[in-house]
Amino acid sequence: MSQAKRIEPDPPIRDPRDSEHLDVWGFADSGFALTPNGEVTFTGDRYPISGKVMPDFLPWARETLDSPLAADDVHESHYPTPIPERVANAAFETELAAGLRAEQIESDPRVRLRHGHGHTQEEMWAIKYGRVTRVPDLVVSPESDAQVRAIVALAQRHRVCLIPYGGGTNVTEALRCPRDERRCIVSVDMRRMNRVLWIDPENRTACIEAGANGREIAEVLARNGYTIGHEPDSYEFSTLGGWVATHASGMKKNRYGNIEDIVLGVTAVTSSGDLARDAAPARESVGGDPARWLFGSEGRLGIVTRAVVKVRPLPEVQKHGSVIFSDLETGFAFVRDVQRAGIVPASIRLMDNLQFQFGQALKPRKQGFAVWKSRLEKFFVTRVKGLAVDRMVACTLLFEGTRAEVAAQERAVYRIAARHRGIKGGAENGQRGYALTFAIAYIRDFMMHHHVLAESFETAVPWSQCVAMIQNVKQRLWQEHAKRGLPGKPFVSARVTQLYETGVCVYFYFAFYARGVEHASEVYAELERAAREEILRSGGSLSHHHGVGKLRQRFLPAIFSPAALAWREGLKRAVDPDDVFGCAN
Amino acid sequence: MSQAKRIEPDPPIRDPRDSEHLDVWGFADSGFALTPNGEVTFTGDRYPISGKVMPDFLPWARETLDSPLAADDVHESHYPTPIPERVANAAFETELAAGLRAEQIESDPRVRLRHGHGHTQEEMWAIKYGRVTRVPDLVVSPESDAQVRAIVALAQRHRVCLIPYGGGTNVTEALRCPRDERRCIVSVDMRRMNRVLWIDPENRTACIEAGANGREIAEVLARNGYTIGHEPDSYEFSTLGGWVATHASGMKKNRYGNIEDIVLGVTAVTSSGDLARDAAPARESVGGDPARWLFGSEGRLGIVTRAVVKVRPLPEVQKHGSVIFSDLETGFAFVRDVQRAGIVPASIRLMDNLQFQFGQALKPRKQGFAVWKSRLEKFFVTRVKGLAVDRMVACTLLFEGTRAEVAAQERAVYRIAARHRGIKGGAENGQRGYALTFAIAYIRDFMMHHHVLAESFETAVPWSQCVAMIQNVKQRLWQEHAKRGLPGKPFVSARVTQLYETGVCVYFYFAFYARGVEHASEVYAELERAAREEILRSGGSLSHHHGVGKLRQRFLPAIFSPAALAWREGLKRAVDPDDVFGCAN
C-alpha cells in the first residue's frame, strides 16, 4: 500500500528558561509581583503584560472586594507543607530501575508533591497553608510506548497504583491521590514523550506523542506550516494526553472543533493490553472504538501514549477585534444573533461588566500620547455614546482563515454588532483580551498571597437559561457570602466563552478576601459547591470542559441515573479489575 | 427553573398507502417493473421516476453485464422460504399479554420473518431462494418507555432474548438471529413510538422517540419550520434509534453533521436500568456519558427509546447543481480542491463513469422538445467539449442555507470546477441524481428477480489512497469474477459520497449476472469479502456508516487489537451479563 509522503519533524526545542514554578502556576520567570511602590507588575518578558506596571489594579481590587489588600498584607507561604513519607515497593522499584535510566526515576519530595496536585484552590492552599495527605511515592518519566508498557506490566505484577501525569494543570483534583491508597503510587510523567512523530500534509493528519504540550505542538507544527487549532487556556503546559483524558475544549473550537473533533485515533496502554489502531479513519461505524472511551476518562482506564490528530495549514490571516455593548443582555443578544447567522469567528467571548473592569484595571501605565488617547477613548465611549461604566460589557473576537473568509466574517459580525448599537473597540483591545488570558492564570496565586481566594468554574447552558443562570449564581454567592459574614464583598463575574447551536459555555470567576476567615479554603469550597448547585438548578451542566475529577464527584448522581453510574463502574471493573489506574476520578 | 417555551407537535400522519413490501425493499406501491413491451418502468407515483419508462436501461445492463437479461428471464421467487417454527415462552408471553393490547403482540410467520432480516443480498436471497434458519418468535410493539421497561424486565425474568427493531433496513445482518439461540427471541419493534415529543425553538433542540423514521421526523419538524438535517439513503424507513445503533451518516452531513453530531442526549432502557438524562448539554466533560456508548452498539447493549437532537430552521434556499468532468482523477482533484477551500456544499457526490452511465440509462423516454434538447446536450458535451462517453464522470451538488450562503458556495464551487474544466450540467441533472438515490434502492430486488446479484458497500479512506483503492477494488473483483468463471462481466462502480478534511467516503456498487451459478449468493459473499480485504489493504476502513453487524465481524481483528476487542466484550458482559440483548452483533 503506498503511503502518502510524511514529514518527520525534529523534536521540540527544550529551553531551560522554560522551567516551571513548583508552588504556583506557570513559568518560573513569570508572575505577578509588586513594585517597590506597591504597584502591581508582572515579571519576566514572556507576555505582552510582562514588565508593565498596572497602577490601577490594587485600588480597583480593594474597592471591588471592599477589603484592605495592602502591599505588605500578605499570607506568608509555608510551601512546602509537610510532604508524606514515601511508600516504597522494593520489588517494583528494583525491576523498574533495571529497565530505565536513573534520571527517569525521581523520588525527590517536592517533585512528588507537584505530581500529586493540580491547580484547584484547595490544592494550592494545601501546599502552602495546609497539608496534602497523600502524594505519589515515585515519579517515572518513560520515553517510549515500550517503556510505558513495561511500567504498566510491572505495576500489575507488583500491585502498584499508576497515575498518568501531563501538565499538572487540571482543576478538578484529578491528580489528588486517594488518601487511603496503601499501594505504592507511581506518577507516570509523560512529558518526555513529546514528539510530533509525523505530519501527513496530503491527508491533513499528524501523529503526536501524548506528553507533548500545546506549546510544543504549536511550535513543531508551525515550523512546518500547520496548526492543530486546539488552544485551551492551559495550553502552554497541558498535554495531548491530558486533553483526551479531560475531554478538553479550546479557545478556537468554532474553527477547529473540540478535542473529540480533532483527535481521530488514540493509542493507549491499559492493564488489558494496548489499544492501538494502524489507521485513523476520518469517520467510521465499527461498533464503537474502545479507545474513544478514554475521552474524559481522567486517568482511570489507561495511559494515552499517542494520538492521530487533524491538522490544518496555518491560517492566511488572523485578526482580532472587540466590541463594546451597553450591558450584558444586549451583548448576549449580539452573540445570539452571531450564532444564529451561522458565521461565527474562530473565537468570540463576551465578558460581563466586572470582567471588563478587571481587564481595564490590568492596563499598564501609559505615557504621553497613549494616556491622552486612552482618556479620549474613555470619554468617547462613556460620554458621547452614553455607556455606563458600571454596565458596559466587552466582546473580544478572533478571526482566522483566508483573507476572503475573514473579510466575510468581519462584515457579518460587525453588521450584527451595529444592530445592537455595539461600538467597535478595535483590534488592539481584542488582542489584549486574548493575551491577558494566559497571564490571568498567574493572578490567582498572587491574590492568594494577599489573602484573596479565587477560582474559576464553568458550565454549558442552553441559550434560554443563560442570563438567568448567571444572575442566579451571582445572587446565590452574594447570599452565601453574607450568610457567613465573610469580609468585604465577593467578586463574581461571568463571561460567555463558547457558542454552540443549542447553548453556550459560561466561565465564572469568584473571589473573596479571606483574611481572618477560619478554614478559609474549606469555606471557599462550600461556596463553590453552592454555586454549582445553583448552576445545575438553573439548567447548566456539571462541566463544559474542566471535568469532574474528585472535585465534582458528589454531583454525579444529580446528572446520571443509577444505571449510568453502574455502567461506568462496570466498564472500569471490566477493563482494569486490579485498579492499576487508581486515581479514583 | 424557567423552561424555554416548547412546541409539542401533533403526531406524524399515518397513511395506509405507506405500507411496505415484506419481501423486497420499500413501499408496497413502488418498485421497478417491466412494461408489456419489456421495458423498465417504475410503479406508483411517489418518486420523480414513478410512471416513467426507461427504455435504455435493460439494453445498457445487458451490455454492461454482458449477459442475457431478457424480460422473461426471471428467477421466480419462492418467498417466503420455510419459516422456522416458533420457540414459545409461555410464562413470558402470559405476563406480556397482561400488560399490552393484543394488537401490540404479533406472531404471524411473515411478520416474524421480516423482523429477522435486513437488506443484505444474502438475506434477500435467503427469504426467496434459500432458507432463514432462525427468526424472532414474537414481535412486540411498545408504545411508551414504561412498556419498553416492562418488556426488558420480563425478558430478564424469563430469560428471553430481545432484539430491537426500527426500519429493518440495515445492511450488515444486524437483525439476523443467532442460529443457535435457544431462548425465545422477541423482536421489539419501536415504530409505534414515533412522536416528536417537543421542539425547543429557542435552544434549537427537539426530543424525538426512537421509533420515528426519517420521513416522519422530517414531516413533523418541517410542519413547524425545522429540520434535523439527517438524511441517510434509507431515511424513508430507518429510525432515530437505528441511526444511533448503527452510527449513521446522512447525505447532508457537511451542513448538519453525522448522527454523533446531531444527537445530544440518548435515553435507553437496558438490562441494568435506564440511561436517562434530564438535560442534553451542548457539550460537556463529565467523565464519559455511558449513553454515548450506545452509538454503533447495533442493539447489543440496550434499547434506545428517545433522543434529544439538534434541529435547524428549514433552509431559506435549497439548490441543486451538477458538473461533468473528463475522468475520475480530474473529478477527484475537483472535490479535493473544494474540501481544501473549506466551502463545502451540503452534499457533494462524485460518481465514476459507470455510475454516470447507470444514471443515464435510467433516464425516462423523452418526447418532442425534451428529446431534441437531450440530444443537443449530449452532442455538446461529447463532441464540442471532447469528453469521452466512457470516461466522463459527474458530480452532483446540493446547496442549502441562506440566499447569501448558497450564492457564496455556488460561486466558490463553480470557480473551482472551471479550474478543472468542468462543464456545468445544471440543476435538473443534479436534482435527478439525488432523487434517483431513493429509487435506486429498489433496483437491487428487481435485478435479483432477473438473476443479477447486486450490493453496495462503503468505506472511509484517506485522500492519498482513494483513487488507488478504487482501482485496486475494481481490479480485484474483476480477477475474482474471472477466476470463478462467472457469467458475463462484473459491474463494479464507485462514487465519492462524503468529504472530510482527512479523507472521503467511497460507495461501491457491485453486481454480476448469476444464472447458472451454484450457490450464487455465497459466491457473491466471497467476492464481497475479497473486495473488503482489498479495501483494508489499500488503506480504507472497515465501514464508514453501514456498520459491522455480523457481515463484517470476521474483519474486526484486522482493525482492533486484542485488548480493544476484550474491552468491548468486557463492557457487554458488565452491562448485560445475561445477554438479554442477544443479537450477537
Secondary structure topology:
Two copies of one chain form a homodimer.
Chain A: E1 32-34, E2 40-42, E3 53-54, H1 57-65, H2 90-99, E4 105-106, H3 109-114, H4 121-129, E5 138-140, H5 145-158, E6 161-165, E7 185-189, E8 196-200, E9 205-209, H6 214-223, E10 226-227, H7 240-246, H8 253-256, H9 259-262, E11 263-270, E12 273-275, E13 303-310, E14 312-313, E15 317-325, H10 328-341, E16 347-351, H11 353-361, H12 368-384, E17 393-401, H13 403-419, E18 423-424, H14 426-440, H15 443-449, E19 452-462, H16 463-483, E20 491-499, E21 503-513, H17 520-537, H18 556-559, H19 562-575
Parallel strand pairs in A: 5-7, 6-7
Antiparallel strand pairs in A: 1-2, 2-3, 4-5, 8-9, 9-13, 10-14, 11-12, 11-13, 15-17, 15-18, 16-17, 16-20, 19-21, 20-21
Describe the structure.
Two copies of one chain form a homodimer. Helices cover 36% and strands 19% of the residues of chain A. Chain A has helices spanning 57-65, 90-99, 109-114, 121-129, 145-158, 214-223, 240-246, 253-256, 259-262, 328-341, 353-361, 368-384, 403-419, 426-440, 443-449, 463-483, 520-537, 556-559, 562-575; strands at 32-34, 40-42, 53-54, 105-106, 138-140, 161-165, 185-189, 196-200, 205-209, 226-227, 263-270, 273-275, 303-310, 312-313, 317-325, 347-351, 393-401, 423-424, 452-462, 491-499, 503-513. Chain A has a seven-stranded antiparallel sheet with strand order 18-15-17-16-20-21-19, with helices on both faces. A five-stranded antiparallel sheet of chain A has the order 8-9-13-11-12. A four-stranded mixed sheet of chain A has the order 4-5-7-6, with helices on one face. In chain A, a hairpin with a 3-residue loop joins strand 20 (491-499) and strand 21. In chain A, helix 2 (90-99) runs antiparallel to helix 5 (145-158) and helix 4 (121-129) packs antiparallel against helix 17 (520-537). Chain A is globular. The interface between A and B is large, with 90 and 90 residues.
